[in-house]
From TrEMBL:
<keyword id="KW-0809">Transit peptide</keyword>
<comment type="subunit">
    <text>Homodimer.</text>
</comment>
<dbReference type="InterPro" id="IPR001236">
    <property type="entry name" value="Lactate/malate_DH_N"/>
</dbReference>
<dbReference type="InterPro" id="IPR001252">
    <property type="entry name" value="Malate_DH_AS"/>
</dbReference>
<feature type="binding site">
    <location>
        <position position="184"/>
    </location>
    <ligand>
        <name>substrate</name>
    </ligand>
</feature>
<dbReference type="Pfam" id="PF00056">
    <property type="entry name" value="Ldh_1_N"/>
</dbReference>
<dbReference type="Pfam" id="PF02866">
    <property type="entry name" value="Ldh_1_C"/>
</dbReference>
<feature type="binding site">
    <location>
        <position position="150"/>
    </location>
    <ligand>
        <name>substrate</name>
    </ligand>
</feature>
<keyword id="KW-0520">NAD</keyword>
<feature type="binding site">
    <location>
        <position position="125"/>
    </location>
    <ligand>
        <name>NAD(+)</name>
    </ligand>
</feature>
<dbReference type="GO" id="GO:0030060">
    <property type="term" value="F:L-malate dehydrogenase (NAD+) activity"/>
</dbReference>
<feature type="binding site">
    <location>
        <begin position="148"/>
        <end position="150"/>
    </location>
    <ligand>
        <name>NAD(+)</name>
    </ligand>
</feature>
<keyword id="KW-0496">Mitochondrion</keyword>
<keyword id="KW-0816">Tricarboxylic acid cycle</keyword>
<keyword id="KW-0560">Oxidoreductase</keyword>
<feature type="binding site">
    <location>
        <position position="118"/>
    </location>
    <ligand>
        <name>substrate</name>
    </ligand>
</feature>
<dbReference type="InterPro" id="IPR001557">
    <property type="entry name" value="L-lactate/malate_DH"/>
</dbReference>
């Protein structure tokens, strides 16, 4: 009985996932699209590989890592969906993994451990990002690059500088994936308001670490009716969501599954934009002129060239205006840290 129920639940979940990913394009009408995942054998990379295999907009799925990729690729390749899967292992095969990619997703890097901030990861992950972006500039300079590797507030500026040095930088094609902040804000908001989470929308601006994450609950839909104390608590929980998971896993990992889900959501939006689906809007950390900072997360409209438009912040509450001013110095410092690393290495 229990086995029958489990099979039914799995069938229903996969069917729902397929319907969601098909929204806007059927696999029959979708053009050929190659997606490369760099760091595919890691904690985020494996579930992300699974989710991208389920996406009917993907025709070729290229999985790369320094070790363990053949097993992940073999496992995922048995799933009966559209995309062909090829695994590549070792730096000598990175170029082959990247050639012809339309979208490159980078979850590569070391995970956070208890007591470790995103910035503690900086030196290791910055070096990894530098190496991978140098290869992207050489083998698929026109791809949309989705940066997941933390600290995103620094790794996106590093990537920009590497691409500038190579003469391939296009600010419309480089994204810091902040979707998990939006996913968390929606979930926590729905939990407090008893709204249907599928109908909730909460923009999140700023950056992707601590106080630089600023959910705009004043702009949430359905319209909020919360006290100031509840808004403060929801904001704090959204900002500390990653730490909540790290502590709950007690030294055995970070937010790998929810991050993979968020990464798949954003990659799907990029693919839809490339394929000409209208009005695809997601929050992302991109080159921006809406504040005095060179990079900033806000809503962006995605299209055939990547970023079609960086959307404004809209009307902010006094609490949000205060949060915006508080986050700027820390975000500025993280951006400058990334630029400095790229210039010195």
């Amino acid at each position: 009985m229990r086995g029958t129920m489990l099979k039914s639940l799995l069938r229903s979940s996969i069917s729902d996932a397929s319907r969601v990913s098909r929204r806007g394009f059927s696999s029959e009408s979708a053009p050929e699209r190659k997606v490369a995942i760099l760091g595919a054998a890691g904690g985020i990379g494996q579930p992300l590989s699974l989710l991208m295999k389920l996406n009917p907009l993907v025709s070729h799925l290229s999985l790369y890592d320094i070790a363990g990729t053949p097993g992940v690729a073999a496992d995922v390749s048995h799933i009966n969906t559209r995309s062909e899967v090829v695994g590549f292992m070792g730096e000598e095969n990175l170029g082959k993994a990247l050639e012809g990619a339309d979208v490159v997703i980078i979850p590569a890097g070391v995970p956070r451990k208890p007591g470790m901030t995103r910035d503690d990861l900086f030196n290791i992950n910055a070096g990894i990002v530098k190496s991978l972006c140098s290869a992207i500039a050489k083998y698929c300079p026109n791809a949309l690059v989705n940066m997941i590797s933390n600290p995103v507030n620094s790794t996106v500026p590093i990537a920009a500088e590497i691409f500038k040095k190579a003469g391939t930088y296009n600010e419309k094609k480089l994204f810091g994936v902040t979707t998990l902040d939006v996913v968390r804000a929606k979930t926590f908001y729905a939990g407090k308001s008893n709204a249907n989470v599928a109908e909730v929308n909460v923009p999140v601006i700023g950056g992707h670490a601590g106080i630089t994450i600023l959910p705009l609950f004043s702009q949430a839909t359905p319209k909020p009716n919360f006290s100031d104390d509840v808004i403060v608590a929801l904001t704090k929980r959204t900002q500390e969501g990653g730490t909540e998971v790290v502590e709950a896993k007690a030294g055995k990992g970070s937010a790998t599954l929810s991050m993979a889900y968020a990464g798949a959501i954003f990659a799907d939006a990029c693919l839809k934009g490339l394929n000409g689906v209208p009005d695809v809007v997601e929050c992302s950390f991109v080159q921006s002129s809406i504040t005095e900072l060179p990079f900033f997360a806000s809503k962006v409209r995605l299209g055939k060239n990547g970023v079609e438009e960086v959307l404004g912040l809209g009307s902010l509450s006094d609490f949000e205006k205060e949060g915006l001013e508080k986050l700027k110095p820390e975000l500025k410092s993280s951006i400058e840290k990334g630029i400095k690393f790229a210039s010195e290495n």
